[in-house]
Amino acid sequence: MSNQDNVLAARVGLKWLEEQQKVAGNRTRIHRLFQQICEQVIAAAGAKTSFVIKDILESEHESESGSQVRKKFKELGEWLSERADVLAESAVDNNFKVYPTGQVTKGDRVLVFIFSARDVDLRFTPSKNDIPEGAIRYTFETRRELNMWLRWLYGAQLGLIPAILIVVLLFGFSGFMILLIIGSLYSAVYQPSIYNWLLTTLLIIVSAKFYKHWRRFYELPERRVVLMPDLLTGRLTPTALVLHHQDDERLPRLNVIAATSTCPVCGGKIVLRADKDNRVYGACTVNPNEHTFSFDYTKKLGWRRN
Ligand SMILES: [Zn+2]
Fold it and tell me: Where does the sequence pass through the membrane (predicted)?
């Protein structure tokens, strides 16, 4: 990437920070850190792309909180990669073709942050002006907003060992439940008592209810996108589990996506849902029956369903 690209990416960074401040109101320390880096990249006309903590502290004038700045500085690379999607989205909306990214490496005993520009993949991030008429665009939440174990799944490559683990977990669990039911039926038949029959009935009801959601995971290889059972995402935004192939990779990757959008009919929030057929779609929280949209996670687009 050229110096010019670095300057453009830094400008996208500042633009995005501005938008963030409008939404969230105040700026956290890591926001300010990133802001200073973007400003310094611009000031140096894109020629300076590696930063040490001293570069920031000198301009921050708050040496007493230096250790906190240091801590945030260390997290900066991870923080940016978690926001790659929203930064790319902000770039296309403001007519830029690059967005900022970076990583922290351990240089000669000091931490060094390397700023870089990355091309926006326009195939996957349609700009606000390129959204086809009648379609909605989904925004993918950042990784930080997912809970801990979902964050681990995000982008995980499905090699042999994780694939075996998942199969063992999925089938092992169902196998265990089936054995439990058979055992409990056996004892209910040979030692009939109200307690044994109640327990067996309860076990069957719970398993059947659970299987309804659990079944989705078995369908993932074929469907490529299934909705995570609410039980697993907790009170977070409904989340989809996606199996996708990167262009140059042999093995598929797992991705967890919490996608939301704004309802063009009533302005309500659109979140992901699964229909009876387990197909993932977007439904408006104000009118989930009528304001429904398809969910194309590859293009981040949705079309009116009825
Ligand atoms: Zn609506």
Answer: 152-182, 194-211
User: How many angstroms is it from 286 CA to the middle of ligand 1?
Assistant: 5
Please give the distance, rounded to the nearest whole angstrom, from the Cα atom of residue 261 to the centre of ligand 1: 10
What confidence score (pLDDT) does residue 281 get? 96
Distance (Å, rounded) from C-alpha 71 to C-alpha 93? 32
Give 214 Cα–ligand 1 centroid separation in angstroms.
Answer: 29
Tens digits of residue pLDDT in 111-128: 899 999 999 887 777 787
Q: Give how far the C-alpha of residue 155 lies from the chain's centroid of Cα atoms, to the nearest Å.
A: 9
0.85 exceeded by pTM = no
- Residue bearing the bigger pLDDT, 282 or 131: 282
| Residues within 5 Å of ion ligand 1, judged at the Cβ atom | 263, 265-266, 268, 284, 286-287, 291
Reported as type and span, the H/E element at residue 87 is helix 84-93
Residue ranges covered by each domain of the chain: 3-120, 160-303
Task: Please state, in angstroms and rounded to a whole number, the distance separating the CA atoms of residues 79 and 306.
Answer: 39
